[in-house]
Automatic annotation (TrEMBL):
Residues 2-165 form the Hydroxymethylglutaryl-coenzyme A synthase N-terminal domain. This is Hydroxymethylglutaryl-CoA synthase. Pfam families: HMG_CoA_synt_C, HMG_CoA_synt_N. NCBIfam families: HMG-CoA-S_prok. CDD domains: init_cond_enzymes. It comes from Carnobacterium alterfunditum. InterPro entries: HMG_CoA_synt_C_dom, HMG_CoA_synth_N, HMG_CoA_synthase_prok, Thiolase-like. (3S)-3-hydroxy-3-methylglutaryl-CoA binds at residues 143, 242, 275.
Length: 390
């Protein structure tokens, strides 16, 4: 039985900062942001968008009534959770009007969470072939104003329906994975911002990739020439290229050209959204499928997932016949086209507007947010959500 991605879509806030202007405001050469880390625009979340609403808005794009009836497991991958007890999946489950006879949980391991969710979903579908699982990857990356990590912030979510006989990508059984207790990136419960050892984290990212790639080759006897493309977790778009280049000489010249060209296609959306943590790998996959020339059915796509702290995995999928008919390219193009640029001053003001944490009541005024699902305020320590489509 084939199990894999039947549907995939993403959502990003309607506001963004131009990275050239951010560089100018920080007295940095623009090329450091646009070429050095490979970012052009950074999505900015207004107060009315949090990880729950971003995930729900992403899912709203792809779900139909049949999905709502058949989804009996919701897995929410995030490192930006809003509650230490209640999962974001439960909120999304209600906002989307899903089948009440369902499991709903939140999964955390830095940027690896959604990949863990997909592997859990595969096991569930194997036991329940008629079921569907909704896997959500949603995060808001925040490092603080005028910090070293500011240029690698972002906000957004990816939603995926995992099912038997998937229409887009059938996931293969063999994968390679690795865990090591390291402190390259972490966020204690008491901190609003993450701590990161940037140089060390980059080194570990590449090391993890090379290690799981070697393990994968040993398990499968496959090599680079067997891949149409490889997608990477992209906290910024240059990092995946660094990793790919460490093994590129293993491929033929023709394969090298193909892999590099497809890598560029896989980074286009990430360049214009920024870092969405656990959703970054899957935003890259959406970008690859929607921005590359049509791939042949049966093409193999590699996926490298990395979550600091650290867990890494390399796994693969096979593109299904006519997969492009089941993408949401037009809706995603409309989303990008409808976004509004904000000034650095406006961005800084929004960044400092946060949800109260002292139990006070708050009602968030209009931000001209066009999203159908929004956070409207706080009352009695409870977030107040609204789905305008209901």
């Amino acid at each position: 039985m084939k199990i894999g991605i039947d549907k995939i879509g993403f959502y990003a806030p309607h506001l963004y900062v131009d990275m050239n202007k951010l560089a100018a405001a920080r007295n940095v050469e623009p090329e450091k942001f646009t070429i050095g880390i490979g970012q052009e625009k950074m999505a900015v979340a207004p107060i009315t968008q949090d990880p729950v609403t971003l995930a729900a808005n992403a899912a709203l794009i792809i779900l139909d009534e049949e999905d709502r009836a058949k989804i009996d497991f919701v897995i929410f991958g995030t490192e930006s959770g809003i509650d230490n007890s209640k999962s974001g999946a439960v909120y999304v489950h209600r906002l989307l009007g899903l089948n009440p006879n369902a499991r709903s949980v939140e999964v955390k391991q830095a940027c690896y969470g959604a990949t863990a969710g997909i592997q859990m979903a595969k096991g569930h579908i194997a036991l329940n072939p008629d079921s569907r699982v909704l896997v959500l990857a949603s995060d808001i990356a925040r490092y603080g104003l005028n910090t070293a990590g500011e240029a690698t912030q972002g906000a957004g979510a990816v939603a995926m329906v995992i099912s038997a006989d998937p229409k887009i990508l059938a996931l293969e059984d063999q994968s390679a994975y690795l865990t090591a207790d390291i402190m390259d990136f972490w966020r204690p419960i008491y901190s609003d911002f993450a701590f990161v050892d940037g140089k060390f984290s980059n080194e570990q990212y590449v090391l993890f990739f090379k290690t799981v790639w070697e393990q994968y080759k040993t398990k499968t006897n496959l090599g680079l020439n067997d891949f149409e493309a490889i997608c990477f977790h992209l906290p910024y778009t240059k990092i995946g290229l660094k990793a790919l280049r460490t093994i590129l000489e293993e491929a033929s010249e023709e394969s090298q050209e193909r892999l590099l060209a497809n890598y560029q296609s896989s980074t286009l959306y990430n360049r214009n959204v920024g870092n969405i943590y656990t959703g970054s790998l899957y935003l890259s996959l959406v970008s690859l499928l929607e921005q590359s020339e049509q791939f042949k059915s049966g093409s193999r796509i590699g996926l490298f997932s990395y979550g600091s702290g650290a867990v890494g995995e390399f796994f693969t999928g096979i593109l299904q016949p006519n997969y492009q008919e089941y993408l949401y390219s037009e809706k995603h193009a409309e989303l990008f086209a409808s976004r509004t640029e904000v000034s650095i001053e406006e961005y800084e003001k929004m960044f400092q507007q946060t949800v109260p944490v002292d139990g006070s009541t708050a009602v968030f005024g209009s931000t001209n947010d066009p999203a159908p699902i929004q956070l409207k305020g706080i009352k009695d320590n409870m977030r107040q959500y609204e789905n305008k489509t209901n």
